[in-house]
Design a protein that fits this description.
The chain is of the alpha/beta class and 495 residues long. It contains 15 helices and 22 strands. The structure holds nicotinamide-adenine-dinucleotide (NAD). Nicotinamide-adenine-dinucleotide binds next to helix 7, helix 8 and helix 11.
Length: 495
């Protein structure tokens, strides 16, 4: 890969890496299968990528198992492992122009966001997790059994970890999983989403360049129902770390029971964002609009249910609608675009289905509500108001630039409403009252709560779901509970 400084990305330039990465080699699928990759900004196919089938999954598992058992990674000193991960973070930054270009082509996010948001964010994850490679420690434990015993725990890697990632932030979510899995000494098979397979392959290439040995990170693009399903059923994979829909999460739970593999599941959300009447209303409007419209709403933690106190309801709804109307939606390579298209034609159908359902169930469309009539998969940023709790647009994850506003009167009522969801991924609170902020944060049934801000992420902040939003945590030191297992060693000193 080559680096250029401050270049204007060329969408027509050929893609370098389109084959499977298994044991440090770029290979075709065993059956020669390939699939088309679409640019969501235009709806056009721009490349084809090898599609891993069951035989390729077997090859990847064999490679990752060998790399794990023979230990070029696990037995490397923690400091050397740390240095390789840091170097991988550096290489991501050095290649940010090209990685950003490919992410924009593949996913549709504006180039400025891919280049200056996604890539540095993935790099930060490798830098942060590289520090943990030297700090994964056990404990010494005083026990009361008769005799003189020395008891301690070791935190050991789990083995071969399959990482299955979605298409909304392809590189960033891959980094959330791969960085801690590798820091803990596991080997990884990464399966990107079929809609966005390319930056995962670039990550694999840079991992080799960073000195991470062959087989430690294999990358096998393919479809969920075939490649993903084969991985989750595979007896040679010890753990699956998955981000995606709750429906697929349930399938993964079923499919993984053969060898009772460990699971981390980061699933959907329908997060409540509450605006109290004493909030800084201007900040709440801006932050809440960004909390739903960023990445065209394709964010699991998006603040898609907006609860606004009756005293400020009209002002807030009008303010967010004004922001929505002024957002420039367009091709990821148009430097004026603030949000891009939805990631696939299939997803466009899903989101427009919800737009129709909002209207037919009686919500009021304040702005948007339509597909943008052009090539590519665009939807106008949409604000629905005066919605009812029983409507599909209030209960189900839309995963598009669509916010649903609901009015509330008192705090107890809004907390009950916010928690009336099968999901529990995140939530927002806007208030100047410190007591309201902390009390409501404690009552939220959600894995992350933002106060007077929304969607602030950092590698040091654990992230994951309550209820049907999943199992386990990404990021922070908590993530190592999910990528290590604890061994207790009990030594009789009276021998
Ligand atoms: P999905 O859950 O089906 O896909 C996510 C990943 O899982 C992809 O890599 C896919 O190939 C893989 N996958 C699919 N079926 C699988 C199976 N049976 N076994 C193993 N892996 C499998 O998501 P989707 O259908 O692309 O999107 C549907 C909805 O999911 C979205 O509209 C959105 O609501 C939600 N979603 C949530 C997130 C999130 O970050 N929580 C991300 C993407 C999608």
């Amino acid at each position: 890969m080559t680096t250029t400084a401050n270049h204007t990305p060329d969408p027509t330039k050929a893609i370098d890496r389109t084959r499977l990465l298994i044991h440090g080699e770029w290979v075709d699928a065993a059956d020669g299968a390939e699939f088309d990759v679409y640019n969501p900004s235009t709806g056009q196919v721009f490349t084809r990528v090898s599609e891993a089938g069951p035989e390729d999954v077997n090859r990847a598992v064999e490679s990752s198992r060998k790399a794990f058992e023979e230990g070029p990674w696990r037995n490397m000193t923690p400091l050397d492992r740390s240095a390789a991960l840091w170097r991988l973070g550096d290489l991501l930054l050095e290649n940010a122009d090209e990685i950003g270009r490919v992410e924009t082509l593949d996913q549709g996010q504006p180039f400025s966001i891919a280049r200056h948001g996604s890539v540095p964010s993935a790099a930060r994850m490798f830098h942060y997790m590289s520090g943990w490679a030297t700090k994964i420690e056990g404990n010494t434990i005083p026990i009361s059994a008769g005799g003189d015993f020395h008891v301690y725990t070791r935190r050991e890697p789990i083995g071969v970890v399959g990482c299955i990632v979605p298409w909304n932030f392809p590189l960033v979510i891959a980094a959330w999983k791969v960085a801690p899995a590798l820091a803990a000494g596991n080997t990884v098979i990464l399966k990107p989403a079929e809609q966005t397979p390319l930056t995962a392959l670039m990550l694999g290439e840079l991992a080799l360049e960073a000195g991470i040995p062959p087989g430690v990170l294999n990358v096998i693009p393919g479809f969920g129902g075939r490649t993903g399903q084969t991985m989750t059923e595979h007896m040679g994979i010890d753990k699956i770390s998955f981000t995606g829909s709750t429906t697929t999460g349930r399938r993964i739970v079923d499919a993984s029971k053969g060898n009772l593999k460990r699971l981390s599941l980061e699933l959907g959300g329908k997060s409540a964002n509450i605006i109290f009447p004493d909030a800084d209303i201007e900040a709440a409007i801006g932050g809440s609009a960004n909390g739903i419209f960023f990445n065209a709403g394709q964010a699991c933690a998006a603040g898609s249910r907006l609860y606004v106190h009756e005293n400020v309801y009209d002002e807030v709804v009008a303010g967010i609608a004004e922001v929505a109307k002024n957002i420039k939606v367009g091709d990821g390579f148009d430097p004026t675009s603030e949000i891009g298209p939805l990631a696939s034609a299939q997803h466009l159908d899903r989101v427009t289905g919800y737009l129709q359902s909002g209207v037919s169930e009686g919500a009021r469309t304040v702005t948007g509500g339509t597909q943008i009539d052009t090539q590519g998969y665009y939807v106008a940023p949409t604000v629905f108001a005066d919605a009812r709790e029983d409507q599909k647009i209030v209960q189900e994850e839309i995963f598009g630039p669509v916010v649903v506003a609901l009015k509330f009167t008192d705090t107890e009522e809004v907390v009950r409403a916010a928690n009336r969801s099968a999901y529990g991924l995140a939530g927002g609170i806007w208030t100047k009252n410190i007591s309201t902020a902390h009390k409501v944060a404690a009552q939220f049934q959600a894995g992350s709560v933002w106060v007077n801000c929304y969607q602030v992420f950092d590698p040091a902040m654990p992230f994951g779901g309550y209820k049907e939003s999943g199992w386990g945590r990404e990021m922070g030191h908590e993530v190592f509970n999910d990528y290590t297992q604890v061994k207790t060693v009990c030594v009789n000193l009276d021998t």
